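Thread: Newbie trying to understand structure tokens

Hi all, I'm a second-year student working on a class project, and my supervisor (Dr. K.) asked me to get a predicted structure for one chain before our next meeting. I've only ever worked with sequences, so writing a 3D structure as a token string is new to me. If someone could post the tokens and maybe explain what I'm looking at, I'd be very grateful. Here's the chain:
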Amino acid sequence: MMIVLKFIVFSKFYIKLYTHDMFIKQYKIIIVKAIIFLNK
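---
Reply by user tm_fold:
Sure, no problem. This is what the structure looks like when written as tokens:
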């Protein structure tokens, strides 16, 4: 039972970390596109 509980907590933490990482990547892409757009 304890192992299952730890797994649930870990998976929730991993999902948060993963979505945060994806958000940062998306944000970087937006910044790069904005810079290219402004330099035109």
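A couple of things are worth pointing out once you decode it. Residues 17 and 23 are 10 Å apart (CA to CA). The chain has a mean pLDDT of 88. Feel free to ask follow-ups in this thread.
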